[in-house]
Amino acid sequence: MWKGRFSQDTNEAVLNFTQSLDLDWRMALADIRGSIAHVRMLGHTGLLSAEDAETIEKNLCDIADEIRNGEFVPKVSLEDVHMNIESRLIEKCGAVGARLHMGRSRNDQVNTTVRLYLRKELLEIWSGLDALILVLLKKAEEHINIVVPGYTHLQQAQPISMGQFWMAHTQAFLRDAKRFFDAYEAVDESPLGCGALAGSTLPLDREFTCRDLGFSKITANSMDTVAHRDHFMDVLYFAAVFGGHVSRLSEDLIIYFSTEFGWIKLPDAFCTGSSIMPQKKNPDVLELLRGKTGQLSGALVDLITMTKGIPLTYNRDLQDDKRSLFRTIDCLKGIFSVLPALINEVEVDEDAANRGFSDGLILATDVAEYLVLRGVPFRSAHEKVGHVVRYCVENNKPLTALTIEEWQKYIPEVAPDLLPLLSPRKSMERRSTLGGTAPSQVRRQIEDARVKLILFNGEAEGLKESIPGGY
Ligand code: ARG
Fold first, then answer.
1. Average pLDDT in the 229-254 region?
2. Whose CA is nearest to atom 11 of ligand 1?
3. Is the N or the C terminus of the chain less surrounded, counting Cβ atoms within 10 Å?
């Protein structure tokens, strides 16, 4: 494309090193859609005759068919998706095709193409996130009355509803959903018409292309537009934080599934065996989820590091933005292909969970709070109950098995009405402060989350509708 200026062909190694076809060919149809908007605008403004504009659009559509049928074999020697498609166009319609690139640079072109491509991919990702949240809500409802241990420092802390556990993860994913739509909004801007960096001397109509492509607004500054990749970072940030949440959920389930905890059940179809140890049933899917999410934080660091220190405006460093972006998209799709289905199958063995806290010590806070209500200052209540706990541990007695006399020996303020409170279920049900683990509070959360999900889905529907047919 630049043969006018050069007296030598590009060195073969340089060609292979600088090409981006291996990364960007997957955006071919989005690139064609961007070109169609550009050519329509050229026709609309009179920069192209109506006839030429029509010829180009028709040939671009034919090229899209060739791509869909797998007939189009792109050449690495043409560097990237943009040059491959343009040169095929020129091959097909000669001098008319050679007019397409007026008023456009690959700098605003690639920017447009990735945004178009990403919009669709993001909406698919939303479907995955929606499905994940939906199945978590279903589990929260199903398990709302199941009592399991809640942990801090991975030590038994207080009894909780398994519904509260699922909702804790759900709240994190709902925050991710908010970040997701913020990222989408950043992507949903039209860069076309910014040219190489400074706009154009030609009377381009940026509003026309923006409308034609269904973007919600036009980018403000031509230099900033071709130089920054903030909108990708927004996507990668959403993904990295989401990945942390997936990893934590996976880790929780791996722990509870282990022989020593052993109070959740995973179906055989979502586990794998060992090639040597016949007894093994391993949670490999969860482990891979935990591991793969590392790529998501890695991708964010990759892009942030790659773009720091680049001067305005476009520099070739930016070509590699697609590496972290596409790896992230693929990783997210992989997560959504298994995680909601796996969660759907998780069952809780409540007896096993309860056996785990048969020493009753998990109820110690309840006793301290009982004393507070009888006028004992919390610090001294804490200490008194601490003595009782020590007595239990030293004498190998469950806290729940102490007689009223034993209680009163250590804590005279205890009355017989303490004893019926000392069950894990009671304890869970009595934590009814706003956002607490009592089923009434979990139910509230589920209802609020359902409303949020409906609103998010409405937003996603609107976005889907704003994308014109094709791309
Ligand atoms: N393949 C390039 C990319 O993905 C297209 C833009 C090239 N622009 C340039 N000035 N060399 O970034």
1. 98
2. 316
3. N
